[in-house]
Amino acid sequence: MHNPLHNLGQTRSSQKHNHLLLTPDTFVRTALPGMKACMAVVHAGPAIGARFTEYIAEFESGGELGPTTAQRFLYVLDGQLKLEADGRQSDLRVRGYAYLPEDASHRVVATKASRAAVIEKPYQPLASFESPSAIISSEDAVSSEPLDGDKDLQVKHLLPDTMPFDFAVNSMVYQPGAALSMVEMHVMEHGLLMLEGGGIYRLGDSWYPVTAGDFIWMGPWCPQWFGAIGKVPAKYLIYKDWNRHPLAPAPPSEFMRAAPNLDAEKSATPQLTSAPQSKTAKNLPKKDRR
């Protein structure tokens, strides 16, 4: 029976000037332009000050994402998606993911009821580098590495750590009791989706219990720290802007520009490239690996 008092308005969700915690009890679903048999839970976007948007797409069988001209990253949480890009079809199952460059013609359709995390960001080009190519892979195909030598805290880098990419998406797994070695404060912003387990997250001057299904946005220089608690590992998917100078022109706030006509697309679409494979700290630049 529905309780009209709804626990007297209590929730773990919280919004502060430099961070946001959204818990599933406060999620509101909406349809975004071009979606068919699909709804979105929008977690972050320019309205809160973010320079990207992140949402969970919830598909019915046969449901479809709307188009975008921004870069798009997909990570399958449940079900199965069919991705049409570069004249070929690929099946994305649970933990499968794809990176589509800006202006890439593509189509995403669910073959059964599915959920996916979707990240979209306008591209910030560098004059001396070509823009990235598309990537279609699975998290299972990417090797993990310990963060700062801690074997109980493993990181998988789902996108190549090369200058053409202006953002990174990683998965991080903490064994029970594992924690970040320091409180971090940095210029990058984060979008974080808890996938498994739980723990305590410090955001600003607040400490929050978090669990699977929660979303966190962290603005630049928001003090942040996480420690895993409980009897099972904690895992999250985390976005950050990356590889650009702080004085570089900001991407436009209205990045959901007029969608391309997929049937009339004239320009060649980017070629697919292989996903990042095993990496070790010794063959990567000495910068924050989170």
Give the ordered list of helices and strands.
EEEEEEEEEEEEEEEEEEEEE
Outline the low-pLDDT stretches: 254-271, 277-286
If you compute it from the alpha carbons, what radius of gyration comes out, rounded to the nearest whole angstrom? 19 Å
The biggest beta sheet is recorded as:
8 strands, antiparallel
Helical residues, percent: under 10%
Binned strand content: 35-45%
Decide which structural class fits the backbone.
Answer: mainly beta
Give the CA-based shape: globular
Q: First CA to last CA: what distance?
A: 44 Å
Mean pLDDT: 89
Largest sheet: spatial strand order: 1-2-18-15-20-14-13-12
Name the features:
mainly beta; 0% helix; seven-stranded mixed β-sheet
Describe what you observe in this structure:
Helix content is 0%, strand content 44%. The protein is mostly beta strands. The strands form four sheets. It has an eight-stranded antiparallel sheet with strand order 1-2-18-15-20-14-13-12, with no helix packed on it. A seven-stranded mixed sheet has the order 3-4-10-5-8-11-21, with no helix packed on it. Strands 7-6-9 form a three-stranded antiparallel sheet, with no helix packed on it. A hairpin with a 2-residue loop joins strand 12 (145-147) and strand 13 (150-157). The protein is globular. Residues 254-271 and 277-286 have low confidence and may be disordered.
